[in-house]
Amino acid sequence: MKAQVIVKLKQGVLDPQGVAIGKSLSTLGFQGVNSVRQGKIFEIDLNASDEKSAKDELQKMSEKLLANPVIEDFEIKVSAS
Amino acid sequence: MKAQVIVKLKQGVLDPQGVAIGKSLSTLGFQGVNSVRQGKIFEIDLNASDEKSAKDELQKMSEKLLANPVIEDFEIKVSAS
C-alpha cells in the first residue's frame, strides 16, 4: 500500500527557510510572491491489511518520528495499490 | 493565488535520508515498511492574473530554484483562492 505523509509547520510558526526562499525568488526576478512556506513529504510503501489499519499505523509513525507535533501538522493520504 | 510545488527525487536516485527514516521506523517497532522516500513541499502564495500564468511562473521558479532538475522531479498544483 502506498501512502503520503505531508508535514507542514503550524500556522503562526515562523518559517525562516521559507522566507529565505521567498527573498531568493525576488532576487531572481520573480515578482508577486507573497509568501513561501516549506514542508516535507514522505512517500511510504507499507504492508497493511486495509486502508484503516494503514492510516492508524501512519498516524503513529507521524506522531513518533515524522513530525514534531508541537510545531508541525501532518496529513495522511493512502492510495490502495 | 495559492500553489503547491512538490519536489521529489527521481526514480532510481538513491535517497539515503529516506532509507535512514525507514530503518528508524523499524527500530521503533513499525514492521511492514517497505520503503520511505523523502521530498519537499513548497506552499507559495503569489499574485497572478490567471491559473495558466501562475503555472508558467511556478514552472520557471521550480526549474531555477526550488528543484534540481538533474536529480529531482517536480509537480505544480494551483488552487484559485
Strand count of chain A: 3
CATH superfamily of chain A: Phosphoribosylformylglycinamidine synthase subunit PurS
Strand order of the largest sheet of chain A: 2-1-3
Low-pLDDT windows of residues of chain A: none
Mean pLDDT of chain A: 96
Describe the structure.
2 copies of one chain form a homodimer. Chain A is of the alpha+beta class and 81 residues long. Chain A has a single domain, classed as Phosphoribosylformylglycinamidine synthase subunit PurS (Mth169, Chain: A). Helices cover 35% and strands 37% of the residues of chain A. The first copy, chain A, has 2 helices and 3 strands. Chain A has a 3-stranded antiparallel β-sheet. The longest helix of chain A has 16 residues. The first copy, chain A, is elongated, with a radius of gyration of 16 Å. The N and C termini of chain A lie close together (5 Å). The model of chain A has no long low-confidence stretch (mean pLDDT 96). Chains A and B meet through α1, β2 and α2 of A and α1, β2 and α2 of B.
List its salient traits.
81 residues, alpha+beta, Mth169, Chain: A
Could you outline the blueprint of secondary structure elements for this entry?
The structure is a homodimer of 81-residue chains.
Chain A: E1 2-9, H1 16-27, E2 33-46, H2 51-66, E3 72-79
Antiparallel strand pairs in A: 1-2, 1-3
Give a quick summary of the entry.
Two copies of one chain form a homodimer. Helices cover 35% and strands 37% of the residues of chain A.
